[in-house]
Amino acid sequence: IAKGYGVDRAWSAMEAQGAKAALLNLSGNMMLRGSPPNRTKWSIGIRDPKGRWPSIGTLELTNCALATSGAYEQFVDEGGKRFGHILDPKTGWPTDDLHAVTVVTETAMQADAWGTALFVLGTEQAKEVAKRETIVQAILLEPKSDKYVIWIEESLRSSFAIRPEIAEHFELRIF
Question: Structural domains in the chain?
Answer without folding.
Answer: 2-174 (3.10.520.10)
